[in-house]
Automatic annotation (TrEMBL):
The lineage of its organism: Eukaryota, Fungi, Dikarya, Ascomycota, Pezizomycotina. Its cofactor is pyruvate. The keyword RNA-binding does not apply. This is phosphatidylserine decarboxylase. It comes from Arthrobotrys oligospora (strain ATCC 24927 / CBS 115.81 / DSM 1491). Residues 336-403 are annotated as: Disordered.
Length: 403
């Protein structure tokens, strides 16, 4: 009888795990764990199943050598050009409605809001925000930096920590990113913010700080996908991909580097003309460029000791959890002399209660996850996936906690 109960419990655990996995697949929630900054909800990013499988097969220690071959690099380049051409054709317009439905895009946030006004899928892809849909945090105060795009973000107080926890490319460095060791010296081990845009996101990007264009550079390169799975491989994705970089000279933050990085299915990284001309003044929140079709990535690099990233972003990033953010949200503030250690977004902004609410919601989710896992495992051991989900939720709740 004891053996029968054990077997029954074991089978029940397997079936429950399989059903949970099927639910994830049904909702396409197979991407990297993220926390929605506005709601505090822990979730997995929606992503096509075939795409996830392809990334896992190609970017792992056994098959990474394939990604380095000339044949693979040529394929990615040619495929990017081919996809870009397809999305510019009038026939591509038929893809807009299914795309909106798949990713649950709220068109009220964009202009035009009627999909009939878009002639091609590319026109839709580079759609603009409706006025007022993305307010700029502390717009008149240049001591606060903002999020430059609708995306998922991780932030680290040093390049070294970013390499340790997130960017695993063998030769990643600021010198390789900018192609100039002399420029990179002033950013040695400075704070780094890494922003990843998915296909469903708004693909225009905005200035995180107010400043003057110091220089602009363009780099040819590859078109590797910028999924977190790839960034954590040994392939030098960020320093190998085609990219454009601009340096802003600011009164508050010194020099700030903004790098827009192309990815698979992104044929063009475009900076607006004003952003490419040295001496031009750029204000915080101003649109400075766009990506054309596909996922893509942005790196913003500060000089050491200049910025304090927001506490919630830092804590979740240390747990390797990305944060779902929007253009204009707070990124961090000017670091006070003497190396102030507190987070930057809480004081005087009414964010404390909001963040505490997120913590409470996260703790409730932890309880729900543990209750479910306990119920499933009454007849057998808790599955590895259930343990992982529970631990991830606990880490997210801990990361959001206010001390």
């Amino acid at each position: 009888m004891g053996l029968f109960a054990f077997v029954l419990g074991y089978v029940s655990t397997i079936l429950d795990e399989f059903m949970g996995y099927c639910k994830l697949i049904q909702n396409r929630e197979v991407g990297w764990p993220t926390v929605d900054r506005k709601t505090g909800e822990l979730k997995r990013e929606q992503q096509p199943i075939w795409k996830k499988i392809k990334l896992i097969l190609l970017f792992n220690p056994i098959t990474e050598w394939i990604d380095r071959t000339k044949l693979m690099r040529l394929y990615l380049h040619d495929n990017s050009l081919k996809e870009g051409k397809k999305e510019r054709s009038p026939r591509s317009k038929s893809k807009i409605r299914p795309f909106i439905d798949f990713y649950h895009i709220n068109m009220k946030e964009f202009t035009p809001s009627d999909i009939k006004d878009y002639a091609t899928f590319e026109d839709f892809f580079v759609r603009e925000h409706a006025r007022g849909s993305r307010p700029i945090y502390e717009e008149g105060d240049d001591s606060f930096a903002i999020v430059p795009s609708d995306c998922r973000v991780v932030v680290y107080p040093s390049v070294h920590l970013a390499q340790k926890l997130w960017i695993k490319g063998q030769h990643f460095s600021i010198a390789n990113l900018l192609g100039d060791p002399s420029i990179a010296e002033s950013f040695a081990d400075g704070p780094v913010a890494s922003f990843r845009l998915s296909p469903q996101d708004y693909h225009r990007y905005h200035a995180p700080v107010t400043g003057t264009v110091k220089w602009y550079k363009q780099f040819s390169g590859e078109y590797y996908n910028v999924d977190p799975w790839n960034l954590r491989s040994h392939i030098d994705v960020l320093t190998s991909n085609a990219r454009c970089a601009v340096c802003f000279e600011t009164e508050k933050y010194g020099d700030v580097i903004f790098v827009a990085i192309g990815a698979s299915d992104v044929g063009t990284v475009k900076f607006n003309e004003d952003t490419r001309i040295p001496g031009r003044r750029i204000r915080k929140g101003q649109e400075i460029g766009r990506f054309e079709f596909g996922g893509s990535s942005i790196l913003v690099v500060f000089q050491k000791g200049r910025i304090l990233f927001d506490e919630d972003l830092l804590n979740l990033s240390n747990e390797r959890i990305m944060v779902d953010v929007e253009v204009g949200m707070s990124l961090g503030r000017l670091q006070a002399k003497g190396g102030e250690k507190r987070g930057s977004v809480d004081e005087g902004s009414g964010k404390v209660n909001e963040k505490r609410q997120k913590v409470n919601e996260m703790h409730e989710k932890v309880g729900e996850t543990e209750t479910y896992a306990q119920a499933v495992s009454e007849g057998g051991k808790k599955s590895d996936s259930e343990k992982e989900d529970t631990q991830t939720t606990k880490r997210a709740a801990k990361a959001l906690r206010i001390t």
